[in-house]
Amino acid sequence: MTTVSAATWLDVPADHPFGVATLPYGVFSTASDPGARVGVAIGEMILDLAPLLRSLAPSLAPAVTGPSLDTLLAAGPRTWAQLRASVTTWLTDATFSSRLSGYLVPARDAVMHLPFTVADYVDFYASEQHATNLGRMFRPGQDPLTPNWKHLPIGYHGRAGTVVGSGTDIVRPGGQRRGADGTITFGPSQRLDIEAELGFVVGTPSRLGRPVGLTAFEDHVFGVCLVNDWSARDIQAWEYVPLGPFLGKSFATSVSPWVVPLAALAPARVSPPARTVPLLPYLDDSGTPPWGLDVRLEVRLNGHVVSRPRFDGMYWTGAQMLAHLTANGASLRTGDLYASGTISGDSPDQRGSLIELSWGGAEPLRLPDGTSRTFLEDGDEVVISARAPGADGTVIGLGEVRGRILPVRTR
Predict the structure, then answer these.
(1) Do 68 and 117 touch, CB atoms closer than 8 A?
(2) How far apart are CA 231 and CA 403, in angstroms?
(3) Global pTM?
(4) Whole-angstrom Cα distance, residue 260 to residue 102?
(5) Number of CB atoms found within 10 A of residue 257's CB
(6) Contact in structure between 247 and 175 (CB atoms under 8 Å)
(7) From start to end of 262-335, where are the E strands?
(8) What distance in Å separates the CA atoms of residue 217 and residue 357, rounded to the nearest whole number?
(9) How far apart are CA 370 and CA 384, in angstroms?
């Protein structure tokens, strides 16, 4: 995997999160050209790829033609590498400056869209700290981790049709709830929560009946994005036994507009935490290159930083999640999205959900403006951003995913 540290001829600060070492892909439109199209972010600009490639690299142009990243995702690792190398060359060789100038669009003028068609959505539960915190809340006096937790990445199959782009308003969901006195009512969720997560975007599909091993991770996964997997904790608590999450999770999942290629994260790769339980061969990554990632998130509630989760402490890696997802022979499709589950760390200021930050509502979270929260109120806005270390002191930015809570809709 190639590490990029060269400077661009554009006026982009060396520490800009969307420098030439990042080059994330997204889908945008403008008022003057309302058609959705593929672009690459560089500094405060977006490179309009389709017309540029028709001019400079016609053989690559079909991969970025269309209103989404779908064709590029399906094109596979060779095309991904060729395109990234070409764009890097054009942005670091000043002789291309005049040829690219007409294809650069100010990011402030762009409207961002959901970057790819979500084929299937799977949500994991990969943070030991998060799972331990919830176990302590819900099963006091017992082992906080379930017996299977360190043997396999626990997950569930979610709803692809309600994965939405960053900036989409989130309507407070309604559903059944069980009160402390055992009374069952239907109404708007009173314990609406966030989950700060990292998402993995699948490019090339796999064949039904053929599991994807740990070493094939880069053959199938194109890149990563940020995910806020909104959760109605009260609805979820009543419905999830025995089959797991349903209406408490399926109402909305927000994703960031930029997908960062795995190649950009090469300098951020780290070893995952030490395994305390022996793993079965298909999950044993002790003899494979590490796929832990030093990604550092920041969660803001109404403009105030409330948490700084770190992905490098996640027990299960993206490669292990993919291996387990396909271990039964389930096939991958282009546009499959799977997410890590809530990212939480060892300290209270690294918890990636409000249920942890307020300890189940028992310890309200105090905000700098004098207000407090246990769970989300109507009008609240949540913004999750993230960065990772790049080569030679550069920064790899993942952008942000945001959403504002609207009141429940009634018929």
Answers:
(1) yes
(2) 13
(3) 0.96
(4) 24
(5) 25
(6) yes
(7) 269-270, 292-293, 296-301, 304-307
(8) 33
(9) 22
**Joined tokens for residue 107:** 């990011």
- pLDDT tens for residues 50-62? 999 999 999 999 9
Burial of residue 292, with CB atoms counted within 10 A of its CB: 0-12 exposed, 13-18 middle, 19 or more buried: buried
220 catalytic? Reply is: no
User: For tokens 């490639």, what's the residue?
Assistant: 53
- State the catalytic residue, choosing from 113, 130, 220, 324: 130
What pLDDT does 5 receive?
Answer: 47
| Tokens describing residue 50 | 């389709």
φ and ψ of 355, to 5 deg? -60, -30
One-letter amino acid for residue 94 of the chain: A
Residue-wise pLDDT tens digits, 294-334: 999 999 999 999 999 999 999 999 999 999 999 999 999 99
**What is residue 4's predicted lDDT score, i.e. its pLDDT?**
45
The set of residues, in sequence order, having a beta carbon less than 8 Å from that of 180 and lying 6+ positions away, is: none
Both tokens of residue 177?
């709830």
